[in-house]
Amino acid sequence: MLLGLTSASRGLVWQDWDDVYVVYQPSSAETHVFNDTTTLILKCLEHGQLSTEGVKNWTEAALGVGQGELAADEFAFAVGRLEELGLIERADEPIAV
Amino acid sequence: MEQERDDGRSKTPLPELNLGRRRLVRSVTAAAPLVLTLRSGAVAAAVSCVGAKVIDSTDSAGKIIQPGSAAAGDTCVAGYQVCPNPGESNKIIPGANMQTAPVTSTGPNLFCGSGGGKITSKPVAILSSIALNSFLAKS
Questions:
Q1: What is the pLDDT of residues B21-40, one digit of tens each?
Q2: I want to staple B91 with a disulfide (CB 3.0 to 4.6 A). Which of A33, A95, B12, B83 is the partner?
Q3: A12–B12: do the CB atoms touch at under 8 Å?
Q4: Nearest by CB to B37, which of A10, A16, A30?
């Protein structure tokens, strides 16, 4: 299972606010609050699709925490929520760009 | 940092994270992802309304004209305001000069109040006891 960014995620407007990011999504006119971990999940998909496990590993490495320290259920919840927001999408096969 | 898009609006790319500073204060639990979506002003402004069993009127004798699912033990409320939220016209919010009376039954008919305490010739909302508690808490 591969994860990839949607076109909506590429139009986000970011504002760094202390330890979190306030993120405006023009496609839905919604405003979100993300922390570093969520931001890294999106950031690691900037350069192309990656497996779910690959995204988790990359995010843990970028955060400087050990492998497995990012709880699988919390990671899965965040990925699911980002998918609901239309910011990432899943595909069994690579998505044509 | 800003990039100009074809439609003239600007967008910002994903930010460069200053993780060095943040690692100093991050615990393992802080690695949990945070995804919050703020409510829009319009949604936040939506009023919390209470659902009525029936919205009807009483006649000059205090009889509920079309009682529907109303039953003795429910409460009649007059002087309410209809919920202003779209699609919630069967709900109510407190009004300025409200009047309440228990639903009573006489034979097959239901009335708002009894004796001289009836609510007569007025629009009334019939609330269950649970809805009444919620409604009064908003008053």
A1: 555 444 445 578 999 988 66
A2: B83
A3: yes
A4: A30
